Amino acid sequence: MAGDVLSQSEIDALLSAISTGEMSADELKKEEQEKKVKVYDFKRALRFSKDQIRSLTRIHENFARLLTTFFSAHLRTYVQITVASADQIPYEEFIRSIPKMTILNTFEVPPLDGRILMEVNPNIAYAMMDRILGGSGESINKVDNLTEIETRIMSNTFERAFEYFREAWSTISDIDPMLSEFEVNPQFLQMVSPNETVVVISLNTTIGDTSGMINICIPHVVLEPIIPKLSVHYWMQTKKKDRNPIEVELLENKVKKSQVPLVAELGTSEIAIEDFLLLDIGDVIELNQSIDKPLVVKVGGIPKFTGQVGKVKRHMGIQILDVLKGGDDDDE
Predict the structure, then answer these.
(1) Looking at residue 64, what is its pLDDT?
(2) Which stretches of the chain are DSSP H helices?
């Protein structure tokens, strides 16, 4: 029988209420028989599972790390970007939550349909622009009257930053982000219908002494074709790809032509540091291997053969006597 499990204190309180007459057994039975109605808001339709939201969070955690590296090098100042939250809300609610005047970068992400919005808090945007122009990174919020030069600097900066979005999403889909629109007033930007469900990933951003938020708004229509890939099963499964025979042959040829060091080891010895420091030209070091025993031949630092030293015309040589088997690099 499905139902909520009561604690001992709740059971005692219920028995006490029945015994004192505050509640009768008939009322309790009647209440239990009544249908419980759960309120559902169709304007806040949950179209993504928690598992899919977690996958989106992981993707954008990688994106945040890439952005931190890019902005740190580009602005030459302290930069820290982390994922603060990932929520699914109606598009209308997202538009109401951002400032009336802000930095809005709209990107197309072919081959996926629809557009993705990157909203950057003006404090952050102006701190970045101040650093690019040689300043200390101070922020002056005058987003309502951006000059043409300021608009170009900002749009170029965020277009370059969003290139790392491709790398962050490469495990899910091979997208090609392109800046399609730069706007400062969200009222003039209508990407989808007001009730369309969007995923909003909020990034905590610190540029020098200035802090603010970068919000990435992804409509459901963009993610719809790749929703199955956002499940944990897709992340965990390993697909065995069919190997192209031509690619295998090319790889084998490359490997065959690769050069590796081959060393015939005459022997080894251990001496004290004091003796090592006193070594001079003409001194003799006694090795731990007899001259009549086979030498170990190493390929790439790994013992592979035994051999004996000889002479080929006027050059020193080594004759392979046997193959060494065993170790981590052998199947046998």
Answers:
(1) 93
(2) 8-20, 25-33, 50-75, 91-97, 122-132, 148-168, 220-223, 232-236, 245-256, 273-277
